[in-house]
Amino acid sequence: MKRNLAIFDLDNTILNGDSDYSWINFLIDIEYVDKDEYERKNQYFYDKYYEGNLDYDEWAEFALSTIKGKKPDDLEGLITKFMSSVIEPMINVYALRLLHKHHHNNDVMLLASATNSVIVNPIAKRLGFENIVATEVEIIDGVYSGKCKDTPALGLGKLEKVTEWMLNNNFNDFKNTTFYSDSINDLPLLAAVTKPIGVNPDNKLREECEKRSWEIVDLP
């Protein structure tokens, strides 16, 4: 029998907050990057994202500048500290109940995040996701180039990457698919699945959910 597919956004859906934005703030706090340069830009891109009009190429160049020229091994300690001090407290236990429900139903579970894979992969591992779609980061000669490897997983890009993942994993259509997201940026994928669910949706997505009679879940 064909298993159902449950797709989850990460930031402000499973997490109480944004992992990308929090990563930059974490690096500012530990004085790994310059506060004056990064704080203002971080807030600017954060606001643009929640307005639904982020220039992702511009954002990616900024976000990935924090790891440009580094080897994956160089970041291990930083990522571990970030996970324990920042991400762990951000995990919404009520969102974990949604994960457990789908796990209990033996559904296939996919984490689909616009955030870059350097940050998403350790979070996915912590949450128990084996299947991940994220913005992949380019590595050249063993170091991060500071660029995306392919299409960023934002908006239509997320829909394209999830569709590609589905075709590679024997899901030939969007029948019996559920997608949880907080963001108007995820409208293309929400519109494609059988059961779109707005989780603590932003104002624009809440309006869209009400207009289209999509389910809304407001988690504490």
- Rg value: 17 Å
Task: Name the CATH superfamily assignment.
Answer: HAD superfamily/HAD-like
Tell me, what is the CATH class?
A: Alpha Beta
- Morphology call: globular
What is the total domain count?
Answer: 1
- Number of E strands: 8
Question: Which second-level CATH architecture applies?
Answer: 3-Layer(aba) Sandwich
Mean pLDDT: 95
- Give the number of helices: 9
Q: Fill in the CATH topology.
A: Rossmann fold
Major sheet details: 6 strands, parallel
Order of helices and strands: EHHHHHEHEEEHEHEHE
Q: What labels describe this entry?
A:
220 residues, Rossmann fold, alpha/beta, two-stranded antiparallel sheet
Describe this structure in words.
The protein has one domain (5-217): Rossmann fold. Helix content is 47%, strand content 19%. The protein contains 9 helices and 8 strands. It has a 6-stranded parallel beta sheet with strand order 3-2-1-6-7-8. A two-stranded antiparallel ribbon has the order 4-5. Strand 6, helix 8 and strand 7 (195-199) form a beta-alpha-beta unit. The mean pLDDT is 95.
Summarize the structure.
The chain has 220 residues and is an alpha/beta fold.
Sequence-ordered SSE layout with sheet pairings:
Layout lengths: L4 E4 L10 H11 L5 H17 L4 H9 L11 H15 L2 H12 L3 E9 H11 L3 E5 L1 E4 L2 E6 L7 H13 L8 E5 L5 H6 L2 E5 L3 H10 L2 E3 L3
Parallel strand pairs: 1-2, 1-6, 2-3, 6-7, 7-8
Antiparallel strand pairs: 4-5
Helix pairs in contact: 1-2
